[in-house]
Amino acid sequence: MACQDWNPRPKMRSRLADQAAYTVRRLVPGDEETLMRVTAVDYRFEHDPATTTTSPPLDLEAARAFLADPTVLYWMAEHDGRPIGMLHCYLLRLPHAGGPNEILLHDLGTDIDWRRRGVARTLVEAMEAFMASEGIEEVWLGAVATAVDFYLACGFVVSGEKFMEKSIDS
After folding, report:
1. CA separation (Å) from 44 to 97, 103, 125, 149?
2. Helix, strand, coil % in the chain, rounded to nearest 5
3. Would you tell me which CATH number, out of the four given (3.30.1490.20, 3.40.50.620, 3.40.630.30, 3.90.550.10), belongs to the domain 21-153?
């Protein structure tokens, strides 16, 4: 199955003169090697890459299982074949609805060298275009404090005050 390319602004000029063109596409089964390349550099997408450790390498079978999961949606931005951003979310099916009717935005990141160039916003727009095409009306996330202004600028609204997590030792 081929990847799903999406370019929201094919004729728009870059907001920054030095920004070269990049593309955004959704990874689908068959894109396992691409996913492995993205995860190999995902530490560069963190708030402070200097203090973030690299993720363990993703093997082919794990990449295949991840992309085969029907609840997983994963977009990447790339420039000249190099991953420069990613958006990972999940389709959620509520008991009172037939199909997926919400999305949980799990992770969004831009390479440190590509920040403030519209990459993250373009990834969000790709997710929103998918949502519109599938009739999905709501997306939600837990935002870190440093990302709140970005999400507000993308049209998100603050809907609660607490976000909690718990780690379970195995």
Report:
1. 38, 25, 22, 21
2. 30, 20, 45
3. 3.40.630.30
163 versus 80: the higher-pLDDT residue is 80
32-40 and 60-68 helices cross at what angle (nearest 10)? 110
Q: How far apart are CA 20 and CA 12, in angstroms?
A: 12
Q: pLDDT per residue over 14-73, tens digit each?
A: 444 334 589 999 999 999 999 999 988 887 887 666 666 667 788 999 999 999 999 999
Among 113, 95, 163, 123, which Cα is nearest to 23's?
A: 123
* Nearest residue to 92 (alpha-carbon basis) of 141, 58, 125, 158: 141
Token pair listed for 75: 């977009």
Give the residue carrying structure tokens 């997710």.
127
**CB burial of residue 140 (10 Å; 0-12, 13-18, 19+):** middle
- Range with the poorest average pLDDT among 26-30, 63-67, 82-86, 158-162: 158-162
Q: What confidence score (pLDDT) does residue 94 get?
A: 79
Closest CA to 127 of 88, 158, 165, 159: 88
